[in-house]
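Appendix B. Raw example, untouched.
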Amino acid sequence: MRRAAIIGTGQTHHASKRDDVSQPELVREASARALLDAGIDAAAINAVVISSMELFEGRALPELWLGEAAYAAGKPCMKVATGGTSGTSACIAGYHQVASGMFDLVLVVGYEKHSEGNTQAGMAIVDPYWDRAVASGALGNFALSISQYMADTGVTEEQAARVAVKARRNAARNPYAHLQMADITVEKVLESRMLAHPIHMLDMCPQSDGACAIVIAAEKTANKFCDRPAWIEGAATRHQQPYIGDIERRLTTMETLRSAAKEVYAKAGISDPRRDLDVAEIYEPVTYAELAWYEALGFCGQGDAGRLIEEGVTEMDGELPVNPSGGVLSSNPVGASGVIRVAEAASQVLGRAGEHQVDGATTALATGYGVYAWADALVLRAMS
């Protein structure tokens, strides 16, 4: 396996509706910015990987009709669609294409236009007889697992609300973030409309239109175009589909995320994530997920996530800043959300994160989804 690194990133401004552009134009916007950031021409790209949740928009085979917008004309182009992990899985696919020696430069771009589809209809894919009454869509599934998590750990609604406050305040420093809510408070989160107990409106991520892209390069090419590449030190993906009605398996064990994290930590030589990581961009579609991820990723012990957020450990100026970009809680174009996590982690390592840059960040973690079924994890490092 060859060494591979991210040398450029680009993303659109995320919003509830991007009526000013078509889907191909959205993809071109992010792709062009990534190439500009990497300092390379489109002609230099050897292959393209596209990620989206086409189920949400009702359009099949998007790589065939918008691939050209991602500079894929006449080049190998593949699509990845793995639910909430679509973006990170696409990044991992692009990484393996480069690391294997197949290509020297790969462009990965993820996108979603939720305004042109129906997310909840697309998420109604649970068992129609046993599960649909309580778990048709993201909210039902999250409410079930969160209720178990609260019962198992004692995490409170107030602690989850602190996650929302941290995320939206960080997003106020990120010009690309969808939700700009610098004045948010714990009280405002708890007073917002209840969606499905215990999830309040401000506990939940938005539905966003947007796109994000990264450029992955082989070692020789990376060193030629970038003074400080974000080397991919490890990548892992885990997918399974537990049956929601299986009373023998707790939805909160997060087997896939724990397993993926264990693998990438071993590859990157990380023995103590809280000490060895400088920043983390993790996929948190709901506030409680971020708390649960702290535990699954080894940032704290089981049941200690509430204390971690209360003590400010994961704030921008904390011991381990988590989601300085504002996270999925502030921008969620699903097919792009995982690419955003990787791009934001890379931007931190590259030193290009602007107002939400973490000082001295050289090692970063990025994850995709992580709820009980699917999870991806990558570790990026400035040097090793």
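End of appendix B.
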